[in-house]
Amino acid sequence: MDYFMTMLFMLISSKGNFTAYYDVFNYLIDIIMLYVGIRRNRFRLSDFRLLAWTGVIYMAYMIFRWIFIVDLPIRYFLSDCNFFVERIVMSFLLCAVLRENTAYFIVKITIHLAAFGLIMYALQLISGPFVGYIGRIINLPPRIGNPGYTNIIFFTYDDMNHRIRNSGFSWEPGAYGCYLDIGILMHFLINGFKFDKGAWILTASIVTTLSTTTYACFAFIILLYLRVNGLKLSTMLLFAVPLMCVVATQVPFLADKIGKTWQEDQYNLAEMYRLAGWYQKHGGQLHLNRFGSFIYLYDYFGPYGFFWGVSNAYQSITPIADVLNISNGDADFLCKFGVVGMVFFLHRYILFLKKFLYRNEYIIYCVIIYLVLGFGEPMPIFSSTLCFLFMYHYTNPKAFFTKREEEELTGHELEPEVASV
Fold it and tell me: CB burial class (10 A; 0-12, 13-18, 19+) of residue 186?
């Protein structure tokens, strides 16, 4: 039951399938998790203290900001409240039900979905129209208004924009890469930084995304892996860093793509209101890339808005909200919750990391990975990412390492047991 519950949680979190159209699925998974938690006696008083304490901090900040900082109608405050109920409570329930096995099941589901994605990706390269035909037979609602987009719940294929890239179970390759990078990072944390079969599956999947942000963060994950496994910092600086620089400058969708993205964003920013007028007249959206999104939001809301945040529904405040598509997850998070919210989240994230990593250097790598992923995609508000708000409370590294030793002795995988106390 835990496996299928986590699978449903991850698919809803992915926002790549038809569940993204209906908020009822968020509450459906909440009901399922409540049922499992009560039925199997998983909940403890400390769980609800944790949720209550988090809720008090969150609501106190939202109330303070709405009364003293921002001058907005009450619907913006209600949107902030809804985010807590719809997203944060959902992430809490998964952690409270799975307890110390939360990271284990998230990683396991990510690996299994990635393995399925590799099979479908191979089929996509062989015959993309056939994958699209499968989607049309199943005939589920698409995630976005794109005639070339098809989703079969566990896999997405976009014949117009990502014909040779792997979107996996998310809505596009970059977002999928976020799940894969976080997945392999957590996999290394709970398996003692061993490059096993699961790590190879995730690595192969990362390669197929052809995503600049995903590759950049994966490079930091590999550096972390090498450092934890004994690579000296001097050796890394002497060999690994120059090698990464050569790769970044020679692979066309890395440094070259970043330069082109910057130039495109500068043009879009300079011509923004003229382009917005055209889209308002003819339909469609003005897509700002990572740099343009950050610059536009910072210019519009200013450092004061970035520090305190504005609202979960901040986009409706902008004058061209009806046609503007923001793609920078860090800027999006700052506009929703500000630097104050970011610091609070990173504090909880670091508490989780400290369960496994004993050097500040390693933790800095992990924070960089989080921030870089967020710069490229709205990863900070993924439901699976929000689990870091609570996982530190439940994680027990000894349970993972004891299990790994038993698996090595017996030669087969063991299912985790949830503690009853």
Answer: buried
